[in-house]
Predict the structure of Magnesium-transporting ATPase, P-type 1.
Amino acid sequence: MNNTPKTDSSEASNAFWNIPAEQQLKQLNTTAQGLSNAEAGQRIKRYGANRLNNKKQTGNLRLFLAQFKSSIILILLFATGLSFYLHDRLDAAIILTIVLISGLLGFWQEKGAASAIEKLLEIVQIKVSVLRGGIATEIAAESLIPGDIILLKAGDIIPGDCLILESDNLFIDEAILTGETYPVEKLPGVLPVDTALSQRTNALWMGTHVQSGAATALVVATGQTTEFGKLSLRIKLKAPETEFERGIRRFGYLLMEITLILVILIFAVNVYLEKAVLDSFLFALALAVGLTPQLLPAIISINLAHGAKRMAEQKVIVKQLASIENFGSMNVLCSDKTGTLTEGTVHLHDAFDLSGNASDKVSFYAYLNSAYETGFSNPIDEAIRQYRQFDLKDCKKLAEIPYDFYRKRLSLLVSKQGESILITKGALTNVLAACSEVENADGTLAPIESVREQIQQRYEDFSRQGFRTLGLAYKPMDSKARIDKTDEVGMRFLGFLLFFDPPKADCAETIKQLRELGVTLKIITGDNRLVAATVSKQLGLAEHEILTGPEIEKMSGSALINKVANVDLFAEVEPNQKERIIIALKKAGFVVGYMGDGINDVSALHAADVGISVESAADIAKETAEIVLLEKDLAVLVQGVREGRITFANTLKYVFMATSSNFGNMFSMAGASLFLPFLPLLPKQILLTNLLTDFPEMTIASDNVDADMVSQPRRWDIKFIRKFMITFGFVSSLFDFMTFGLLLWLDVSVEQFRTAWFLESVVSAALIVFVVRSSKPFFATRPGKYLVAATLTIVAVTVALPYTPIAPLIGFEPLPIRLLGLLGIIVMLYISTAEIAKHIFYRLVKM
């Protein structure tokens, strides 16, 4: 679909910050009540989906053709077409059929994988609140169109370029677009045409997010017509290469080097020996196909999609398939404690005055502050509202200064029986910074400095008991309609609010399971060190050294790198320090996962090797994360880690299979062609060998995995794979040459020679899977039922093939029973020798 907007949209979106809201509404033919559903349906057809990448989902035909994009396959198809006209049409047709069947298998598997992933991603789709016919409706962000009226709150991603219609203490984090560190305040208005992008305070930009406050805005541009869309087109944004993708690429390079050298050498020697040029060319190309794991992309897609589906059953949604490897390789998990290690339900224990006694006035003022708060939903205010309710019929909200992560305060201007009162609650230190006086239990006032030590002592006592303690302050105000941060001065400290969030009952066991999986849990929290230490002790975490935010602030980057490995508890941490901790851990050599669900977790989620969030998280956190949990529970994460490692282990199995007998067989075939007066296998027979040996490997995603492959994090190791290829390729070639010797000694015909070697090659390559799939003895580990069934089916089909009516078409002849028995003995000797070689290999070479 063409996503280029028509003239009315392009004119409306041009310098929209310079156009009054009423005029902009008219240009977009909409109203402050939003579009009707019927009009929205028409516009989505005109503008297309609200995506930066507007490419349609790959169609079936395109996906099928993509199976043949390999240069080797294209050359093979060309050569097949040439032989169709110049050589043997039947052979060409058979080769073409084999290649098409191989392509169909890859298409069928990749199509199923893509469909499964698409369904999983729909579960964690970003939603946006839109006015449709004056009614607020939740829709997918992709369905947003110019002319929509959207409602924004803290944590929301801005889904398109917008003009602000109304705002309430709205602060936007625009770092992704402008590089500005601090959030920018946004207000309705009209600005000059030449206003710089970073100064357009009446406009919102796609990809930025709401730090605090709320707004109603008119969508002016979507998708690639937004500023962020234009930027992405200019610089061709591409996600950084993951460790998994890097491993696949390096493995591909390894095979490419070997294949290129071997093919050129074999073709040149066969031509030198005056064998038919076209046959030699097709033979060399067929060898290249045999050496190349054609189905590797499909196998990887199948494995990752299968793993993603299994992880979804464990309530873990994978947004980026390649992140599964990082998930399985993760050896450090950083997490906040609230809701993950604790119940996540914050309770207000009590409201105390300065003397440490329960106070109705502190409870009432805290209730006033929380009842009228509209910035964003949070458990603190919900706990206050649930603890005790008051009659507010004589009260009225006048104005609000929303909470932000720099002030760490929330202030409400309230009218109580005609008297205006500014009530502030927040982090104790930040509330005290706004106070000049303190109100005693008897109502008398005193300078704040006279009781500061007493306040601090009570705060520490509460913290040692495991309570999170907030401060509450107020001051009478003159009647005024608006307030701002400059009004948060000269306040009276009133008392303490004590909250608790009990640890989860099974959390200690879950942490133990993570430790057994080789994953160290590190807590990063904004709570003070006393509360954090108490909760950590309750969770059964080892009492390691604690590092606080102020201490981190004073440390250099190298000092932090040397420190983080031995610290499992980071307390009093600022949002920007979370990212520093993650980066330091990565530089110290760890594969780091970060679990966060808030606006202030975004930078840490982005910095981590694998960002983990939850379905109920702020939109910006959910969008940034690669993995989303449907439940905020470490137990869910444990299962996800196991499934991630199973997926990676099964992917490696295919690599081991492709680099063992297949490589050995093709190498042997190349060597044999140099001294045999005929081609040891015809090109069509080589391709059939490749097809039959690949078929069982498509079931590898459902194979069982040994416990030791899941117990510890593992990563791509190309050196290990190269050694594995050389070792088991040599063993395979040894028995291939034994087969040559036997056939030459028996002086069989050329057709029987090819038939016998075909049987030995396919059967040995199919059965070797039971050896190389595990480092344990093949009889000590149980393969998956689908793998067993597929392998035995292929063995049966291969043995029966020379005795079928189509055998002459492929160039096969029936073999005498005696020769079949001898081939069976060679295959059994090969399997036994490979098992011994495996035992020695794993003893000498550590993965």
